[in-house]
Design goal:
heterotrimer, A mainly alpha, B mainly alpha, C alpha/beta, A: mainly alpha, ABC transporter involved in vitamin B12 uptake, BtuC, C: alpha/beta, Rossmann fold, 6-stranded mixed beta sheet, 4-stranded antiparallel beta sheet, 10 helices, globular
């Protein structure tokens, strides 16, 4: 990506050893947090009780704690990847599903299923939400054509406004149909209700991560612009279509499982970009790992800060994510100025 | 040519025709009065005096909010040198909610309840003014940043404040939380009379402070360096205006809660309606247009669609579209 | 007289003005030259009280800028910055009217109107008086701002790169106008320029800044010498006499 806002080319001799350290740190953090996540909760599940053969503890682990931890890791990794792909497609560092209206469109889709087909299976809901997410991505890409690429901050601004408008429509109908409270309940990001049999949709998101990984080089090239990509013999439209699908499926499946998790897909790729640059093949494992660590950490905070009650994860991600976003926008050396 | 202008207070083209700002403002005032009368006397169910009292309270609240939002937005536009940023978009409202929550969080709900609501409200407004002045002089003082950057920063700040507010609310006792939602925020259609009176006093005070500055505001719209060149003590005047703006926003948010895009629509329509940048006309035009919007919106929603309190959602939707068009049109340049 | 006495202004570690002592305003037109980042704009900002100096004092006709009320200074000194973006939609007449703000605080007297009309008339802006600024060409807009400065009726006029973004014809037009401000209106003009030859043709005195210091200060003939110019710009500059006037060639 040639015109990124935040890249600074550091001397390779200095960054490489540091990169290795940070990579190791992310790996260790992921393992430690994942293990911690398994043993935090109202009921006592400790490594000791498992070894002692406590059947209740083992059941709780398999039915609730493992699914939750897996769901958090997959959701975090895939949302961060969705942000990364979107940034490549739009060639703008400040976009991700929640700053482009995609999340709001998917939420509207959820509302539609609840109103029209209340008994629909979760797969169906997810399908409709995905379809709305696709529409949302398409609408955003259309609107954004009116904005010059150089207008770095205007692009996410337009996206946020688009999201606001769609959100207002959703709120309006929810209000009219007395669904405001339940809308709030399931659109608010939280992994509290995740358990065996109710989280498997994040595997769709995981599949999309694999797709993104395989097509990583193509997305790098897309990030250089349409002319550049065509010049290298790439089918620009097809890669854009694949990217749109990846984003929509990830957004919808995380929405169905956990709800909205704002700014994650924006903050994580930007931080990774500062460390390792913008080659998607190189940065994809970093983005996935850091995304997972970030959400795991926030989820653990959400569970412990007011123990035994839980705070919605989206609130914590909102505070930390918005704080980091502001820092990215206002920090010295950012070309957003 | 020379003689002509020496006599005329303004170029003759603008005088005495229906298009002169004074006539336009007068017409707008008449519309407001007509709407208010319609709202007062249409479809009165049951007790006449009771309905009249409730409705006149609502009208009073609308008037106060319209003046507060309209005036503060126009002033904010002038001192920040653009016509898209508004106090609400920059997160003022969200910030006010955060402060109320923090006060309950720190002091505890019981203290909150025992304190006289007026004292409490004064404390909230004072804290809001102190912090927002600090925050926004930091953002707008110093080097000029691009408009779009400031917009995005404002929107993210809003999210940040709202998330933080919710976090703190979740940390509250259920009892404290109840107290907070009961006392801190009221609605447009059921205003608390004491608070309404207090807000009206504050807003009137703010307007009284702005009136002598009307001509200086005109100069401020030339930008900082030109204003300094013309002898305006820029730093001091802008600081004073920032404080007035945050007091007015805090007061109106405390009364009816946040309405995000209201100020944006009203101020921008006021500029084109008044047909002049001069604050002598733009300020009253914004306040009156605000009143027209609130009254007409409420009337239509109640009478035509028989909806209750969804006016702010409709404003959100229309305002969002309006804003998008505005930003895209400016961005294309 | 505008007198700077040991003025220093730092931004971070770099000194935009480094212990500058300088007296301006003795002759009609003084041109301020120097490479980018030499401190010209900072000098204007300090004199025009937009920025407070870290050390030293600036006096205008003996009055300290830091202590004199801003509105008093506005009747002695007018500053036109290079960035004149205005958010409000103003007509030419509106803008020129603002020039009288320091005198009447917005309540125009007959005398104010007289000043406004003379300024509009002098700059041939009568036909454009009701046009909005954003409908004008760059040269017309620049003229409108100069008219505002004229209406402000000050002894000193500071112009920061008034030729920016103008084509050749309008550049000459504005420079000629600056000359007239000094000769016909008796004003003392200090103008930041980039083009050596414009300065040599129209100014009486040229002051060159570099790295926040005054490196040359002379009349035109003393300034337009290859050794002086090469020193300022760090590259060889030839000076030729064409029709008896010095012209610098810096294109090689």
């Amino acid at each position: 990506m040639t015109d990124t806002a935040l890249t600074r080319t550091d001397a390779p001799t200095r960054t490489r050893p540091r990169r290795a350290w940070v990579g190791a740190l992310i790996g260790v953090a992921l393992v430690v947090l994942a293990v911690a996540s398994l043993f935090i909760g109202v009921s006592d599940v400790t490594p000791a009780s498992l070894i002692a053969g406590d059947a209740d503890a083992a059941f709780l682990l398999v039915a609730s704690r493992v699914p939750r931890t897996v769901a958090v890791i997959l959701a975090g990794a895939s949302l961060a990847i969705a942000g990364l792909i979107m940034q490549m497609m739009v060639r703008n560092k400040f976009v991700e599903p929640s700053t482009t209206g995609v999340t709001e469109f998917a939420t509207l889709g959820m509302l539609v299923t609840i109103v029209l087909w209340p008994g629909m299976a979760v797969v169906g809901k997810m399908g409709v939400a995905t379809a709305f997410g696709l529409v949302g991505t398409w609408v955003f890409l259309r609107v954004i054509r009116a904005v010059p690429v150089r207008q770095l901050v205007l692009v996410p601004l337009v996206g946020v406004m688009l999201g606001g408008i769609v959100g207002a429509v959703t709120t309006f109908f929810a209000y009219r149909l007395d669904l405001l409270q339940s809308l709030g309940q399931w659109s608010q990001g939280s992994f509290a209700t995740v358990m065996q049999g109710r989280y498997e949709f994040v595997w769709f998101a995981a599949a999309m991560v694999v797709v993104a990984w395989i097509a990583a080089d193509r997305f790098s090239v897309i990030g250089l612009g349409e002319e550049f990509a065509t010049n290298l013999g790439l089918n620009y439209r097809r890669v854009m279509a694949i990217g749109t699908c990846v984003i929509a499926v990830i957004t919808a499946s995380v929405l169905v499982t956990a709800g909205m998790i704002p700014f994650l897909g924006l903050v994580v790729p930007n931080i990774v970009s500062l460390m390792v640059g913008d080659n998607v093949r190189r940065s994809i494992p970093w983005v996935a790992g850091l995304g997972a660590v970030f959400v795991l950490a926030c989820d653990i905070i959400a569970r412990t800060v007011r123990f035994p009650y839980e705070i919605p994860l989206s609130v914590i991600v909102g505070v930390i994510g918005a704080g980091l976003f502001l820092w990215l926008l206002l920090r010295k050396g950012s070309r957003a100025h | 040519m020379l003689i002509d202008v020496v006599e005329a207070p303004a170029p003759p083209r603008r005088r005495l025709t229906w298009s002169s700002p004074a006539v336009r403002i007068g017409m707008l005032g008449a519309v407001v009065v007509a709407l208010a009368a319609t709202y007062l006397f249409t479809d009165i169910p049951g007790s006449f005096t009771f309905a009249l009292r409730v409705r006149s309270l609502t009208i009073a609240a609308m008037a106060v909010v319209a003046v507060a939002v309209g005036v503060s937005t126009v002033v904010f536009h002038t001192i920040t040198g653009n016509r898209i940023l508004t106090p609400s978009i920059m997160g003022f409202d969200a910030f006010y909610m955060l402060i109320s929550t923090v006060i309950v969080f720190v002091a505890g709900g019981v203290t909150f309840l025992r304190t006289d609501p007026l004292t409490l409200w004064v404390v909230q407004v004072l804290v809001m003014v102190a912090f927002s002045t600090l925050l926004f002089t930091w953002l707008f003082g110093g080097k000029r940043r691009s408009l779009h950057l400031m917009l995005l920063v404002g929107i993210v700040l809003g999210t940040f404040f709202r998330s933080l507010t919710e976090w703190m609310q979740r940390m509250l006792d259920p009892l404290d939380f109840q107290i907070l939602t009961d006392t801190a925020f009221a609605s447009l259609t059921r205003p608390d009379p004491t608070l309404l009176a207090a807000t009206a006093v504050i807003v009137a005070g703010g307007c009284a402070a702005i009136v002598p500055l009307v001509r200086t505001l005109d100069v401020l719209s030339l930008g900082e360096s030109a204003a300094v060149g013309l002898g305006v003590n820029h730093r001091r005047v802008v600081m004073a205006l920032f404080i007035i703006v945050s007091v007015m926003v805090a007061a109106s948010t405390a009364l009816v809660g946040p309405i995000l895009f209201f100020g944006l629509i009203v101020a921008n329509l006021a500029y084109s309606y008044a047909g002049t940048f001069r604050h002598r006309w733009a300020l009253p035009a914004a306040a009156l247009l605000g009143a027209v919007f609130l009254l007409a919106g409420q009337l239509i929603l109640e009478q035509v669609f028989s909806f209750g309190a969804s006016l702010s959602i409709v404003i959100e939707f229309a305002g969002g579209l309006f804003f998008l068009v505005l930003v895209l049109r400016k961005g294309a340049r | 007289m505008i007198a700077l006495d040991h003025v220093t202004k730092r931004y971070g570690n770099t000194a935009a003005l480094d212990d500058v002592s300088l007296t301006l305003g003795d002759v009609g037109v003084t041109a301020l030259l120097g490479p980018n980042g030499a401190g010209k704009s900072t000098l204007f900002s300090v004199v025009g009280r937009l920025v407070q100096a870290d050390a030293g004092t600036v006096t205008i006709d003996g009055r300290d800028v830091a202590e004199t009320p801003s509105s008093d200074l506005a009747r002695t000194l007018a500053v036109l910055r290079q960035d004149n973006h205005i958010a409000a939609r103003l007509t030419v007449h509106d803008l020129v009217e603002f020039g009288r703000f320091p005198h009447s605080k917005g309540r125009l007297t007959v005398e104010d109107r007289d000043h406004i009309e003379r300024a509009l008339d002098y700059l041939d802006l009568e036909p454009l008086r009701d046009r909005f600024l954003d409908e004008l060409s760059g040269g017309q807009r620049q003229r409108a701002f100069v008219a505002m400065i004229l209406a402000q009726d000050t002894r000193y006029v500071l112009l920061d790169e008034p030729l920016n973004n103008l084509d050749l014809r309008h550049m000459t037009e504005i420079m000629r106008l600056i000359r007239q401000l000094a000769d016909e209106w008796g004003k003392t003009v200090i103008v930041v320029l980039h083009d050596i030859n414009f300065a040599a043709r129209y100014a009486d005195r040229i002051v060159a800044l570099r790295d926040g210091r005054v490196v040359a200060d002379a009349d035109v003939s003393g300034f337009m010498r290859p050794d002086v110019l090469a020193d300022i710009y760090d590259s060889p500059v030839e000076v030729h006499q064409i029709d008896g006037k010095p012209v610098a060639l810096y294109y090689e």
